[in-house]
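=== RUN LOG ===
request id: a7f3
mode: sequence -> structure
chains: 1
length: 242
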Amino acid sequence: MSTLILIPARMASTRLPGKPLADIAGAPMIVHVARRAAESGIGRVVVATDTTNVAEAVRAHGFEAVMTRSDHESGSDRIFEALQALDPAGKVSVVVNVQGDLPTIDPGIIGASLAPLADPNVDIATLGVEIVREEEKTNPSVVKIVGSPRTDTRLKALYFTRATAPWGDGPLYHHIGLYAYRREALKRFVALGPSPLERRERLEQLRALEAGMRIDAEIVQSVPLGVDTPEDLVRAREILSR
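=== RESULT ===
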C-alpha cells in the first residue's frame, strides 16, 4: 500500500487559539507532530493547513505543507482536499489522518493503525487503548469504543460513544482519534455529510458506521496527550523538555 500521512492544522481553536504554533521545547507543536509521524516510517508526511504562518513554520523545519480552504467543517474534509492536491493521479491508496495536537504521540502506534487494513473488508482503521483509570470510564470527554473482538488486539467497531459503554463486566476502551482510510473510503466518507448520530454524540466517526462502513480498532498500549487547553500545553512542554 502507498501511504500518505496528513496532519490537519488550523489556528481557530476555541479553547487554545493558535495552538499549532505554540512553542514546545523550542519548536512549534505542529512540528513535533510531524516529527513523530516521520519517525513512524510508514509514508510521506504533509501538514494540511489554512494558515500561511503554519505552512511557513512547517517548511522552515524541513517538512512539507499544503494549503487548504478555511471553511472545512472537519479535519477529514481538509485532508481530502489535500489528498486531491498532492496526488491527483490517485497513486496513494491509504491516507493516515494524524491530529495536529498530539505532540507526544508514539510513532509506533501511528504504524499500528495500518494493521486492520490487512483485512480487505475494513474501510477505516483506528486505535484504542484499555481504560485503567476509573474516572475516565464516566468522563464524556473520553470517547469509548463499543466493539466486537476480532483478535486479541483488534475490535470491529459497532459504536462510539461518550457514555459509559458497554455495560457489564469486562474492559472499556478509549478511542484514540487517529484514522487510516482506504482512499475510496475517505472519498465516500466526506461525500456523505454529517449524520444524525454524529451530530448527537458530536463524533464524526459515527457517520461512517451509520452508512454501513466498517471500522476496526487496533488496541495499543499508550494514549497520546491531546493538547486542547493551556494546562495540556504545560504538560506537553514538561514531557518534551525531559
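=== NOTES ===
The chain is about 30% helix and 25% strand.
The radius of gyration is 17 Å.
=== END ===
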